[in-house]
From TrEMBL:
Belongs to the peptide transporter carbon starvation (CstA) (TC 2.A.114) family. This is Carbon starvation protein A. Keywords: Cell membrane, Membrane, Transmembrane, Transmembrane helix. It is found in: Cell membrane. It comes from Oceanimonas pelagia. One of its GO terms (biological process) is cellular response to starvation. PANTHER family: CARBON STARVATION, INNER MEMBRANE PEPTIDE TRANSPORTER. The keyword Chaperone does not apply. It comes from the Bacteria. The chain crosses the membrane at residues 53-76, 82-104, 125-143, 149-172, 184-205, 229-247, 267-292, 312-335, 363-384, 390-408, 415-433, 445-464. InterPro entries: CstA (IPR051605), CstA_N (IPR003706). The keyword Transmembrane helix applies. GO terms for cellular component: plasma membrane.
Length: 478
């Protein structure tokens, strides 16, 4: 319990201390007009209060990732919670802050255009394709997971819920942002709070389950190897949402179009990531506690994190409370899946320079996305999840390097973005070189050394090419 409270306290301290420092480095300008007012269209550019924008941002980014990821990551022991804390404060929240605030400074543009502006045209073209692929994978993952849980608690066929969720996603993708998303999310937020707080209190008060059964310092350094995937680098791919997630870079521009003032950015973008980190900590703690430790978790989960969600929710809160908690878990992926398709539509709109103020044009881009998504739902969930994890972290790498390039161009302290960019670049390269199923299947030592060398080369090239070159600065950034 002490360890859990310490982790939560560190996350909150990170928001007030390191978050304030990051905001100072960026240099907010409260007097500057935001895109919500400068480009208001009543569809995607709609001014909203700080509290509402924060809540929508939190629900947008907190899909099934900060639940399933930490549960799977808990198989690596207490090191998972350490990564959630450090990754969230120094990488994930920095990533989310810059993906949001750079969009605010650039008229609400999406991540491909931001990457293109600060890293070059090649990065823009790469990110246009990569972001669409990632968002489609996210949309499919966030249909399959909630549909499976709904089927489990109701007994209705999974395919029925897949169809219902698809219809909701289509509506949420094409109607103005304040009509469905802005109105339903406060209710969804209440379910999220109930789920998070209720399960934590129930676990602490439980006489059958001990909160984080005792562990020693040496447990942090065990190279546990669940599913033949060693802690380095697999832990940092497994726990993405809750630590650092590239998917968030596709979501932050949605709220960058609704922020009323730049001074709200730290609360909305950095703060929402801290909130997601706390959700991830709760589920990691439940995973390590409910079945009595790592071995019990591996057996009780049966390879599917949804089993733990259902068993822990009903076991700790009873039938009614468990039902409400599972609904809270279902809400998270649904409130990210709808905005995943919405983000994909807007990225395509920017690419084709197609204004989205008319419904037929929104349908023209949305319908093909949903057709492809429907096809992908037929692919095995486990395969989709693995590809999603790698694509997610690769997107995070690109966004962190984009933030670093922005800071370099403006002669600001770029290391707050460069260091996490270097770490995550090494993680992704090492994982792809080592993985036998998704990559080259090389030995771990060779994969890690190669990852480190390539990361250093990329860092040197970026700093040499960009540092001090201010000719790319636009007047509206001043």
């Amino acid at each position: 319990m002490t360890w859990f409270l310490l982790c939560v306290g560190l996350l909150l301290g990170g928001y007030f201390i390191y978050g304030t420092f990051v905001e100072k480095v960026f240099g907010i300008k409260p007097q500057r007009q935001t895109p919500a007012f400068a480009q208001g269209d009543g569809v995607d550019y709609v001014p909203m209060s700080k509290g509402k924008v924060y809540l929508i941002q939190l629900l947008n980014i907190a899909g099934v990732g900060p639940i399933f990821g930490p549960i799977l990551g808990a198989l690596y022991g207490p090191a998972a919670m350490l990564w959630i804390v450090l990754g969230c404060i120094f990488a994930g929240a920095v990533h989310d802050y810059f993906s949001g605030m750079l969009s605010v400074r650039n008229g609400g543009q999406s991540v491909p255009n931001l990457a293109g502006k600060y890293l070059g045209r090649g990065a823009k073209n790469f990110m246009n394709v990569f972001a669409i692929v990632l968002l489609l994978l996210v949309g499919v993952v966030f249909i399959s997971a909630p549909a499976g849980l709904l089927a489990k608690i109701t007994g209705v066929s999974v395919s029925v819920f897949v169809g219902v969720i698809f219809v909701y996603y289509l509506l949420a993708t094409i109607v103005p942002v304040d009509k469905i998303i802005g109105r339903l999310y406060p209710f969804f937020g209440a379910l999220l709070i109930f789920m998070s707080v209720g399960l934590t209190v129930a676990l602490v008060a439980s006489s059958e389950h001990t909160m984080l059964p005792g562990f020693e310092v040496g447990d942090f350094f065990q190279n546990l190897n669940p599913n033949d995937m060693p802690l380095w680098p697999a832990l940092f791919i497994t726990i993405a949402c809750g630590a650092v997630s590239g998917f968030h870079a596709t979501q932050s521009p949605l709220m960058a179009r609704c922020v009323e003032n730049e001074s709200n950015g730290r609360f909305v973008f950095y703060g929402a990531m801290i909130g997601e980190g706390i959700i991830a900590l709760i589920w990691c703690a439940i995973a390590l506690s409910f079945f009595g430790g790592v071995e019990g978790l591996n057996t009780g989960m049966g390879g599917n994190p949804a089993n733990l969600v259902y068993e822990a929710s009903t076991g700790l809160l009873g039938a009614v409370g468990g039902f409400m908690a599972v609904l809270g878990v279902i809400v998270l992926p649904i409130t990210s899946g709808d905005t995943a398709f919405r983000s994909a539509r807007l990225i395509l709109a920017e690419y084709f320079n197609m204004p989205q103020n008319r419904l037929p044009k929104r349908l023209l881009l949305a319908i093909p996305l949903f057709v492809i998504g429907a096809v992908l739902t037929q692919v095995d969930f486990g395969i989709i999840w693995r590809y999603f994890g790698v694509a997610n972290q690769a997107t995070a790498v690109m966004m962190l390097w984009t933030a670093s390039a922005y800071l370099l161009r403006h002669n600001k302290l770029h290391w707050i973005a460069t260091v996490p960019a270097m770490f995550m670049t090494t993680v992704v390269i090492s994982f792809l070189l080592n993985s036998a199923t998704l990559g080259a299947g090389l030995p771990m030592t060779l994969s890690t050394v190669t990852g480190l060398v390539l990361t250093l080369v990329i860092t040197a090239m970026l700093i040499t090419r960009i540092k001090g070159r201010n000719e790319g600065m636009l007047a509206d950034e001043a």
